[in-house]
Write a structure and sequence with these properties.
The protein is mainly alpha-helical and 408 residues long. Helix content is 71%, strand content 5%.
Length: 408
């Protein structure tokens, strides 16, 4: 039996804390609910009371004020409180007390103050566009209009959970290639900065008669040692120029078009965008957002500018009453399977459910494609680094052999 510490609300909406013994977390939740308490947070260790010295440090907006994980926790907890019968004002007040991070607490406190003063929840969220996306705000607005805010928050919770799960799979899949690049890169730097200079000292100052490849490796080593700062500045400058160009309308469109033409990568990007489009549209339609408005919101969250631009024709087709299937075929973005499923969904009046099935199918396709790309990347990276390191080693050995007049 383990001991669980919980924070919950009772049947009257009062905030309570306590501990309970149970074999696992699910049983603990059931026990807490059996005493008419609605659990908000459950910990295996007693939460420590945090304090701050209230020292204001300069902040730089490198990271969002609220992380995706914190946003998911906020949505889960707010959904639990509202579905347990608390008002929005009471629920927000409770969450402000529970939040430990200062930035998150400041955001929630501002939202609570605005709602308490009479603002709608969606209008209060709109004051924090760096935290709450257009999708989030519009779904909340639809939930408020239909009086089903709790249900909408449940759908948002599912949406954010699926998004986090997909990101987690991608991140975990990229760990090994990242380690491989780091190790190989470190080996290359070590050779150029330490091994090559030591070996080149054997040749003395007069390097006449050395093979061209040996001279090339030695020159590159000197370049690394003497002008590393210039190489670093050049790399940073090139990165900034590239980023600024791709941030422009023309540059971004050209870069996204190029990525779609790359074998395997282009197919992966298409699958990711199809999954994102389908899941977002489904979530919005289920929440009562009108289809044209849902399409505009969905277009804004697509990351590939070429695919997003193509969706304009879909919007025009819907606006003129052509439905969604025919314009989708013309823009040539969705795979045939997805278009067929959308056609069935539109004809049977279950478009939102069919879009969700498409998202589930292509989430699995994305995972499969990522594994395929990584399985190809690993041997290619190993082979490439082996060729580079082998070239350096062989070039230096050729120089040593030439000095000793050993025929190759």
């Amino acid at each position: 039996m383990a001991q669980f510490f919980y924070q919950a609300t009772d049947s009257k909406g009062k905030f309570v804390e306590g501990d309970i013994e149970a074999p696992d977390q699910r049983t603990a939740i059931q026990k807490i609910r059996s005493i008419n308490h609605f659990p908000i947070q459950i910990h295996t260790q007693k939460p420590k009371k945090s304090f701050s010295l209230d020292i204001q440090l300069p902040s730089y907006e490198l990271f969002p004020p609220v992380s995706p994980k914190e946003l998911l926790n906020f949505t889960q907890q707010l959904s639990t409180l509202i579905n347990s019968g608390l008002t929005l004002d009471e629920s927000l007040g409770t969450l402000v007390k529970l939040t430990e991070k200062d930035k998150t607490r400041n955001v929630l406190s501002d939202i609570h103050k605005r709602v308490h003063a009479g603002s709608t929840f969606s209008a209060a969220l709109a004051e924090h566009p760096k935290v709450f996306s257009k999708l989030y705000m519009n779904m909340v607005r639809a939930g408020e209009a239909g009086g089903v805010l709790g249900s909408v928050l449940d759908r948002l919770e599912e949406f954010l959970e699926d998004l986090q799960e997909l990101k987690g799979k991608v991140a975990s899949a990229m760990i090994y290639p990242a380690i491989l690049v780091l190790v190989c890169g470190s080996a290359l730097v070590f050779l150029m900065l330490f091994v090559v200079p030591q070996l080149s000292s054997v040749f003395g100052e007069d390097m006449q008669g050395l093979p061209v490849t040996t001279l090339l490796v030695i020159s590159m080593s000197h370049l690394f040692i003497d002008y590393w700062w210039a190489l670093l500045l050049g790399l940073v400058f090139s990165g900034l120029v590239f980023r600024n160009y791709t941030n422009t309308e023309r540059g971004g469109h050209q870069w996204d078009a190029l990525k779609l033409k790359v074998p395997l990568l282009g197919s992966l990007i298409q699958k990711v965008e199809v999954s994102r489009f389908s899941r977002t549209m489904s979530t919005l339609l289920k929440s009562g957002v009108p289809v044209l408005q849902a399409l505009l919101i969905t277009r804004s969250i697509l990351t590939n500018k070429v695919i997003s631009k193509a969706m304009e024709h879909l919007h025009d087709g819907l606006k003129s009453g052509k439905g969604i299937t025919e314009p989708l075929r013309k823009i040539n973005v969705f795979p045939p399977l997805a278009i067929h499923m959308i056609t069935v969904g539109e004809e049977t009046g279950s478009l939102d459910d069919m879009l969700l099935k498409i998202a589930t199918i292509y989430d699995k396709e994305v995972e499969r494609s990522i594994k395929q790309i990584i399985s190809l990347m690993e041997p290619m990276m190993i082979l490439m680094m082996a060729c580079i390191i082998g070239f350096i080693v062989i070039s230096m050995l050729m120089g040593i052999f030439s000095m000793n007049e050993i025929p190759l």
